[in-house]
Amino acid sequence: MVITGCLLVGIGIGMIAGDTGAGALIGLGIGFLGEALFGRGRMPWTRSRSSD
Q1: What is the domain partition of the chain in residue ranges?
Q2: Cα(31)–Cα(5) distance, rounded to whole angstroms?
Q3: CA-based radius of gyration for the chain
């Protein structure tokens, strides 16, 4: 859902700015980064339980 939300926000901002394609690509990039860092309850600043 993070990717989809960022994509839609990027498209909306791109439509306002006049370049929908660039907004979609920026939204996808931010969405993929957000999913990698925060997806499925992950917190990037905490240690993993397997290292304990």
Answers
A1: 1-33
A2: 7
A3: 14
For 6-45, the pLDDT digits (tens) are 999 999 999 999 999 999 999 999 999 988 888 777 776 6
Cα(first)–Cα(last) distance of the chain, in Å?
31
Enter the pTM of the model: 0.71
Q: Give DSSP secondary structure letters for 4-26.
A: HHHHHHHHHHHHHHT-HHHHHHH
pLDDT of amino acid 2:
86
With a CB cutoff of 8 Å and minimum separation 6, the contacts of 30 are 6, 10
